Amino acid sequence: MADDSRYDKLPTATPLGAPLDWAWLRGARSEWGVHPKPGPRGLTMMDIAVGAYGEVPEVPPRRSMSPRGADIEDPQPDMGYILNRKSQVWAENVRELYEEAVARQWSATRDIPWGELRELPDDVEHAVCQLCTTLSEVEMIAADLPAKWMWRMNHDFLEVKMFLCTQIMDEARHSEVFRKRALANGGGLLKSRTSSTSLLRTILEAKTYTQASALMHLLGEGFVLDIFRQGELIAPTEVEKRIFRMAMQDEARHVAYGTLHVRYAVEHDPDVAEEIHAALDHGEEVLVDFGTQPDLSTSIAVLLAGGVDEVEEKGFPAQWALTVKLLTSYLARCERAGLSRLDRTHLPLDVLGIDPALIRPAA
Amino acid sequence: MPGIDSVAFFDAVASKMHDDPQAYEILGDVDLDLAVVMRRPDGSAFRVLIAFRGIACERVVELEPGDEERADCVLDGPLDAWAEMFDDIRSHGRATGRQTVNSLTLLGDRMVVRGTDPLGVDKFFRYNQTVQAFLDGAAGVVPADVS
Q: A363: pLDDT confidence band, cut at 50, 70 and 90?
């Protein structure tokens, strides 16, 4: 520490007589002089995870918003956190995903070539609008759900909260961009059914955060990620292509967090595996109801067929093949998360033609 | 001029990326080891690793058979499917319709995306716009760029 004799002469009271405390200037119990080194792209959250600042406790000693690594005065008020174990929220990739999310933000106003929209056949425009209606409805759950849990997370898990903030922003943008697309080309919002809300309520009402994360990140967003992939394939113009490609990137980050959160949770507390399985047992049923609801499935089939004329010959068979891919990806992610669903799921793997043996080695 | 199944071709595409950092700055950082496998009619295959870091293509390296499995993900398809994709890119300035790399791999009948780790495969989706922009850069590759 530099010469601090100068500090001895500092006033002990304000001009109004209130006592002053210069403890912060004389050094503290926190780590000083850690000098994180910026990388070529700047100073990242990985760069500053140095020394004590990078140590995330398994069970934080306090339930306050005091910054992890600071010289903290005790006792601190209790903020009412209920997620006070690292395994309840953490994922090993969360810092990287936060940085990635910040670096890959985009604007639904500015970054979509709205000027390239052109008049589409009536059936295709209706199908695009129906798909956008459904997506605009379901996307916001992935903002509402983290918001429900974030204020209950111990502040020592700051990086998780920061990442979830980016997810909330992502989902706001997704709701925005699909709403804009539905309205932008002479169409509008179309049907909204009860099965959508049933799925969303199942996710929102999960009893634990890890159950909620499995339902939302692994199951729900994994499903939507594949819908976005399909959207990019079936997009009638460059406008929708860009929309789906950009949204796909965001969604894949959320899935990556959820996959490794569930893995971390199961590795550090094997007892949670059963509660996650139970949530997914129900979630898969509700998702199948949602995925087979008439508006979503038929609008995608029409887009896959390029219109209604060949929806039976081309649209539905292509949709079936893509559904098999979608469920295969979901089951592979569950394996990667350390939560094999292959012997547990009620999804009709034989009917779908999914061979569990081909998925298991992927883990 | 070497064909698309050459390191020289992908080096030329990478140089297009380096020439336009602003375009990639908007898209954001990438941390991806992408392997490309082009299967020739004679049964041989061209394998190349394209390593993206930050907003740059850090290196392009030809791979030995089997080494592609160490990449985050692998784009694998017959040479003529790759040629069709690059022809479309050259004709239109960017991939159109079902010639985008996501569309080709989603249908999976001509080209697949695969990997040993589902999270590695998911990186292909996380960085998809950048990967597509990189491949679209081939529109500007002329014989003089490929040595």
A: very low
Q: Is the pLDDT of residue B143 over 70?
A: no
CB interface of B with A, residues 99-138, below 8 Å: 100, 102-103, 106-108, 116-119, 121-123, 125-129, 132
Instruction: Indicate whether A2 pLDDT > 60.
Output: no
Residue A145 domain-assigned (yes or no): yes
pTM: 0.93
Q: Which residue pairs, CB below 8 angstroms and at least 24 apart, start in B90-94?
A: B90/B138, B90/B139, B92/B139, B93/B136, B93/B139, B94/B132, B94/B136, B94/B139
Say which CATH topology domain B7-139 has: Nonspecific Lipid-transfer Protein; Chain A (3.30.1050)
Measured over the CA atoms of residue A136, residue A142, residue A148 and residue A154, the dihedral's sign is negative
The complex scores an ipTM of: 0.89
Average per-residue pLDDT for chain A: 93
Instruction: Determine whether the interchain pair A103/B128 forms a contact, defined as Cβ–Cβ distance below 8 Å.
Output: no
**Segment A290-315, tens digit of pLDDT:** 888 889 999 999 999 999 999 999 99
B21 and A CB contact within 8 Å: no
Q: What local confidence, expressed as pLDDT, does residue A3 receive?
A: 63
Write out the two tokens for B14.
Answer: 């990478």
Question: Best mutation site among B119, B130, B132 for testing chain A: the one with the most A CBs within 10 Å?
Answer: B119
Contact B28 A103 (CB under 8 A): yes
| Range of the structural domain that residue A265 is part of | 89-300
The CA distance from A201 to the nearest CA of chain B, in Å, is 27
Helix (H, G, I), strand (E, B) or coil at A175: helix
